[in-house]
Predict the 3D structure of the following.
Amino acid sequence: MNIITVHSTEILSKYFGETESSLRTLFATARKSSPCMLFFDEFDAISCKRSMEGGGSSGGNLNARILSTFLNEMDGVTSENQSKDSESNVIIVVACQDISKLDDALVRPGRLHHHIHLENPNEDDIEDLLNYKLSISPYEEQENNILSGIPCAPDVDISKLTSYLFEKNSSCADVVGLCKAASYNAIRRHVNANLGENSENKNKIFVQWSDFESLIE
């Protein structure tokens, strides 16, 4: 099956009618690529409830036009999928932060009627994700191997990070964000330490526990 991934905020345009045109083009492309899954990420950014629309003439009208276009295209896809004479097979999947913010017309039966709620990761999930994102081993082993994750010094405590993130009810994005922030701290520390020096270790950067510690204090 073909998959078309759409970051919803990227199709928003300041020009009149361009956002709706982009939506229609996406659905047309999905039909031509059938069987196809059309996936909208951050969907609540473009499809809020009509009662939540901004009071301004441009904001509210834009939301209404986007919603109307999406509903029309989705109804067309549904009809084609159910038709015996049609070879179209398009599945619409969306991801959002809060389903209660979506318009009722979107989530009624026949449209986006199957809902899967993803909980935040539990403690074991967080530990598995950290082990996947971080590569912790002695320096000499890391220097000669292709690493699957961010190279870390042996002093990085996975269990302590896991406990901290679990207590904060962190999402997967929070876990990944913490790892990235620690790697940026390591880069800054390394650059400041080697500034103006011609050191052989200039290209060897490892995330240390101190790079995490400053973020979780």
About this structure: Helices lie at 18-32, 57-82, 104-107, 123-133, 139-143, 158-167, 172-194, 209-216. Confidence is low (pLDDT under 50) at residues 55-59. The chain has two domains: 2-107, 123-216. The radius of gyration is 24 Å.
